[in-house]
Structure formats: structure tokens, C-alpha cells
């Protein structure tokens, strides 16, 4: 592609050899898809603005009433559970991130450095949760959590253990892609031969090189935790999603407002990942950044 | 299945000779993760599937398998598979068309960043919030529903009455629409790398040999993309098949297998139903294993053209 670009300037009418669509076709497809996918989001926005039922033959009256309701102290009791749920979800997200950083990440680095023969096994383990539907896993979580509750008490925060499993495939992939692009073995041998201890190697050499993968994993983990419903609902805990489902019965408008906010939040989170440069495209490709071995 | 694999790191002894003590110390580093996976993945998976083999009193039995002879359950199993196949195929075709449109755009440009992020969000969007979106769109009072009734005077459109059974959205057939909404973005995520793998040189070779763009697609691109495409279809099938939250938010009980599991688990009237959930879970896992074996086979075929 780059060669074509060099030979013929973009503006000129070059005959197309490969798979690329013409500009017009691309535009039509993307615009139609964009509209179709925005309709439900637009309908949510319109829904949050609805005030009362329209009189027969009249247009639906719209306004910001429901947005103001959120801040009305009189409604505090109605939204109390939702705010509690959001708070729980944030703490669960925090714990799940800790599980990813303290359990998954060190294991991945250790396997890469010391047990490369186990790489396939680790990958398999981390991808298994995709194969087992959450509803199925939940059937087994119920007895496991009755034990967990005896140890930690029945707090929503223990959900982090279960959700951590659901998150494994999503957290594994960006870190694995990053690890594949960085030759950690050579890097750690180089720093060891220069006299660095293992702590130094980890903190000052390996982790900085894995920054992007780790960041993506953390963000995706947060997004997954905030959207998780199945486990929380079966284990009867109050999280953001279960609270939304409950609030829908009482005040569907505010429930939808918060759903919209969550969507926007997740979208921004992922745009930030994208701007950090997506790691998956650098798979097994040598990086110019880590190459300055020759002066 | 998983138990055997996850315990493997703890039992294998590889280090021999003088380094064996240091190696066993390094092995210890793997134990926290191995323990975690054992406790929260292997044990729950085994318990979930195993509970189907026990009565509520704890005795070993095959009685729960009578659930699979229940016409309601078999009907729901078929409905779940149908729903998954239909949404996987529609999602795959539409997603592939979007991938095609994205070919030749700069991978780091704003358009791709926005579409990649939107796809990730929407693919994860399943659940309560997705249900909200479609209630607001094609529910009884939905935007499109209202538009069809007021502007076109079509008062018995499928979003109001479908099959004489209330709004389409609250029936299993109606799940197709929200499901496609998260399948298409997933297809964009999983199929785009394969599309990007089409090398420009193949197009040039085709042109030098006198091929047209039609022959390029039918003789080169499509055969190369076929394994990746069908692999993606399988992944999408698995995604629909295991989806629970969207259906739970829209349909109060039964209709598809995940909802039957919920029904069996939460049943308070019939004692011993909870173990039936284990049988249903086993049925789902069996379908998923069959599907994933097919996926790994196709993935191996597809990876031949990557690198």
C-alpha cells in the first residue's frame, strides 16, 4: 500500500488493484451503518427527554425534567440504591484491577521469562472463560460463594474474584500482544548483566516496556466490570447494572440517563486506549524503540 | 477438562540436577495464579457441570437428565441455537461489509480509532443497557414504534403486536434485533485483522495476470478469507449462545436456555430443580465445546495466511 502511495499521489485516479473499496462506496457503507447504530442511542436520548404522555395527535413534549430529578433531594431515596450500586461497582473494578495486576501480570511475565513452554497452557487457561458462558459459571459460583461468604462476609466486593475470571481473556490479550512485541528475556538478561537486581529489572525495565498493554488491560477490565450483570444478579448483590435493572421499574428515565452516561464513559475510556496506540498491531514485529543495541 | 490443565503447573517436575532447588522456588511464583484459577474457574466449572449428576440430597443420579427430554427444554435449546445461528450469520455478513469499507483507511487515523472504540463498547454493550436502548427504540412506546403508528397509521406493526403475542421485542424472535446490535461490532473487531492481512501484492499480481476486480474477489480474496470468516461466525455464535443479560432484561422467563438455567436455579416451588440447572449448564458447555473445536480448526487454517 505504501508503495502505491509513493508512485501515485492520492488525489490522482489510480486504478485499484486490491481489495480497497472506492471512496464513494466506503462513505455510503459507513454512513448507513453509522445511522443504523446511532438510532437506538438517539432513541435513548429522546427517551430521557420525554415528559409525560403525548396527547392524542400531539407531538411528544420534551424537556430536561428527568435530568433535574437526579439532583432533587426529594428523590434521594429512589436513587439511593443506584448510587450505592455505582459505588460498589467502582470498588469491585478496583479490586478486579488489583487481581489482574497482582495475579495475572506477574504470572505472565514469569512464564515469559522462565517457563516459555507454558505459554500455550497459560493462553488456554485465560481463554477458557470465553468458552464457558457466565450463566454456566454462575451455577458453580453459587456453592463457591457460600464458602467465600463465610470467610469474607457477604459483601459485594467479593464479586471481584468471580468477575476477575470473566475478565481474564480481555486482560490477557493486550498484555500478551505487548509481551510478544518486547523481547523481555533479552531485556532482563541485559539489565541483569549490567548488575540490576530482579526488583530493578521488573520496575525499571520490564514494566515500563509493558505500559501500553497493562493500561489497555486495566481500562478494558474497568469497562467489563461496569457492564457485568449476570454474576451480580445471580449472587444477589447490588452493583451498577443490577441497580439499573431495579431502577427501571421505578424511574426508567433516570435509569436510561445513567445507562447513557456509562456508555459515554466507556467510549471515552476506549478512545483513550486507542490514542495510546493499539498494541495488537505490533504483534511479533520488532520495535524500533527497543532496538538501539548498535550505536 | 479445565481442572486437569490448571493443576498441571503445580505437578510437573522439570528442573533436574543442580538448578532443581532454584527452579522449584521459581515454580512457587506460579502458585498464586494457579490457586486463583483453581478456586474461581476450575472448581466452579466442575461444580456447575457436576451438580447435574447429583440429587438435591447429594446422591449420585442420572435423574436430572430427564430435563433434556422435557419438550419445553428441548424446544428452548433449539430456539437458542436458531437465535445464535441467525444473529451470527447476519452479524458476520454486516460486520464483514463494514470491515470492507474500512480497508485502506489509516489504522491510526481518527476514523479507525473512533470505530474501533465504538465497536469495543457496543460489543460489550449486551445486557441491561442494551435492553433499555431497544425498549426506547422498538418497545411498545419506542421511538420507531410511535413513528410507525402516528406517521404511517400502521397501528398493528410488529413492534406493537407480533404473532398475536404482544410486542416483538419481548419474544425470543425479537431478541434477534438487539443481538445483531452487539454481533456486528464484535465481527468488526475479530474480522478486521484478517481483512487487513490481504496483501496489496496479491491485487497487483492479479492485475498483471489480467484479472479483474471480480476475479480478485472470487478467486483470491474470498478463498483466503473464508476460514477466518467462518471462524468469526463460530465466535459470534458462541457469543449469542452464552448471552444472558439482554434476554433476562427483556423476557421474564424461559424461551432460551440461559433463562431456563435462571428459572431452575431460582425456582422456589419445585425442590431439586437447582440440580437441573447443572444438566442445562452441561448441555450448554457441550454445545460450546463442539463449537470451539470447530473454531480452533478454522483458526489454524486461517493463520496460514497471516504472518
Folded structure, characterized:
The complex is a heterodimer of chains A (about 300) and B (about 300). With about 300 residues, chain A is mostly helical. Chain A is about 70% helix and about 0% strand. Chain A is globular, with a radius of gyration of 25 Å. By secondary structure, chain B is mainly alpha-helical. The radius of gyration of chain B is 24 Å and the shape is globular.
Topology:
The complex is a heterodimer of chains A (295) and B (307).
Chain A: H1 2-7, H2 23-49, H3 65-71, H4 76-114, H5 119-131, H6 134-152, H7 159-181, H8 184-193, H9 198-209, H10 211-227, H11 230-234, H12 240-250, H13 252-275
Helix pairs in contact in A: 2-13, 4-7, 4-10, 4-12, 5-7, 7-10, 8-9, 10-13, 12-13
Chain B: H1 2-11, H2 20-28, H3 31-50, H4 71-102, H5 110-123, H6 128-138, H7 143-152, H8 176-196, H9 200-208, H10 213-242, H11 245-250, H12 257-266, H13 273-303
Helix pairs in contact in B: 1-3, 3-13, 4-8, 4-10, 5-8, 8-10, 9-10, 10-13, 12-13
Amino acid at each position: 500500500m505504501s508503495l502505491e502511495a509513493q508512485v501515485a499521489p492520492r488525489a490522482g485516479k489510480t486504478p485499484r488493484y486490491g481489495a480497497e473499496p472506492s471512496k464513494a462506496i466506503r462513505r455510503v457503507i459507513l454512513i448507513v451503518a453509522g445511522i443504523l447504530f446511532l438510532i437506538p442511542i438517539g432513541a435513548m436520548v429522546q427517551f430521557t427527554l420525554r415528559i409525560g404522555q403525548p396527547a392524542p395527535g400531539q407531538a411528544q413534549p420534551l424537556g430536561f425534567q428527568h435530568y433535574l430529578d437526579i439532583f432533587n433531594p426529594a428523590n434521594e431515596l429512589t436513587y439511593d440504591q443506584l448510587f450505592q450500586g455505582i459505588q460498589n461497582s467502582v470498588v469491585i473494578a478496583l479490586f478486579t484491577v488489583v487481581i489482574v495486576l497482582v495475579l495475572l501480570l506477574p504470572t505472565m511475565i514469569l512464564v515469559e521469562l522462565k517457563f516459555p513452554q507454558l505459554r500455550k497452557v497459560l493462553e488456554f487457561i485465560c481463554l477458557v472463560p470465553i468458552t464457558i458462558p457466565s450463566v454456566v459459571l454462575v451455577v458453580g459460583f453459587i456453592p463457591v460463594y457460600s464458602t467465600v461468604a463465610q470467610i469474607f462476609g457477604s459483601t459485594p466486593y467479593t464479586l471481584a474474584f468471580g468477575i476477575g475470571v470473566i475478565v481474564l481473556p480481555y486482560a490477557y490479550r493486550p498484555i500478551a500482544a505487548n509481551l510478544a512485541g518486547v523481547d523481555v528475556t533479552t531485556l532482563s538478561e541485559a539489565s541483569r548483566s549490567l548488575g540490576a537486581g530482579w526488583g530493578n529489572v521488573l520496575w525499571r525495565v520490564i514494566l515500563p516496556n509493558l505500559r501500553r498493554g497493562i493500561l489497555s488491560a486495566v481500562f478494558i477490565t474497568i469497562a467489563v466490570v461496569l457492564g457485568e450483570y449476570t454474576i451480580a444478579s445471580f449472587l444477589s448483590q447490588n452493583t451498577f447494572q443490577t441497580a439499573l435493572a431495579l431502577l427501571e421499574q421505578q424511574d426508567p428515565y433516570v435509569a436510561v440517563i445513567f445507562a447513557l452516561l456509562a456508555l459515554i464513559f466507556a467510549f471515552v475510556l476506549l478512545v483513550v486506549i486507542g490514542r495510546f496506540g493499539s498494541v495488537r498491531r505490533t504483534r511479533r514485529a520488532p520495535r524500533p524503540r527497543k532496538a538501539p543495541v548498535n550505536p | 477438562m479445565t481442572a486437569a490443565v490448571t493443576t498441571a503447573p503445580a505437578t510437573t517436575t522439570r528442573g533436574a540436577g543442580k538448578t532443581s532447588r532454584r527452579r522449584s522456588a521459581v515454580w512457587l511464583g506460579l502458585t498464586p495464579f494457579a490457586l486463583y484459577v483453581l478456586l474461581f474457574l476450575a472448581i466452579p466449572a466442575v461444580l456447575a457441570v457436576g451438580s447435574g449428576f447429583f440429587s438435591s440430597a447429594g446422591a449420585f443420579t442420572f435423574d436430572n437428565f430427564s430435563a433434556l427430554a422435557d419438550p419445553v427444554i428441548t424446544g428452548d435449546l433449539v430456539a437458542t441455537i436458531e437465535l445464535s445461528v441467525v444473529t451470527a450469520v447476519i452479524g458476520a455478513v454486516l460486520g464483514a461489509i463494514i470491515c470492507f469499507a474500512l480497508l485502506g483507511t489509516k489504522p491510526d487515523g481518527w476514523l479507525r480509532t473512533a470505530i474501533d472504540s465504538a465497536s469495543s463498547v457496543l460489543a460489550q454493550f449486551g445486557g441491561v443497557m442494551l435492553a433499555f436502548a431497544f425498549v426506547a427504540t422498538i418497545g411498545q412506546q419506542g421511538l420507531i414504534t410511535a413513528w410507525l403508528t402516528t406517521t404511517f397509521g400502521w397501528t398493528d406493526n410488529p413492534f406493537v403486536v407480533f404473532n398475536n403475542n404482544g410486542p416483538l421485542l419481548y419474544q425470543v424472535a425479537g431478541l434477534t434485533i438487539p443481538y445483531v446490535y452487539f454481533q456486528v461490532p464484535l465481527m468488526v473487531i475479530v474480522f478486521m485483522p484478517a481483512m487487513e492481512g490481504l496483501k496489496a501484492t496479491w491485487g497487483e499480481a492479479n492485475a498483471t495476470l489480467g484479472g479483474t476486480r471480480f476475479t480478485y474477489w472470487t478467486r483470491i480474496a474470498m478463498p483466503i478469507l473464508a476460514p477466518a470468516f467462518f471462524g468469526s461466525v463460530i465466535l459470534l455464535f458462541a457469543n449469542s449462545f452464552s448471552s444472558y443479560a439482554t434476554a433476562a432484561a427483556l423476557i421474564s422467563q424461559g424461551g432460551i436456555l440461559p433463562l431456563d438455567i435462571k428459572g431452575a436455579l431460582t425456582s422456589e416451588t419445585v425442590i431439586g430443580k437447582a440440580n437441573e440447572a447443572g444438566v442445562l449448564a452441561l448441555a450448554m458447555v457441550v454445545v460450546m465445546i463442539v463449537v470451539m473445536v470447530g473454531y480452533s480448526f478454522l483458526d489454524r487454517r486461517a493463520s496460514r495466511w497471516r504472518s
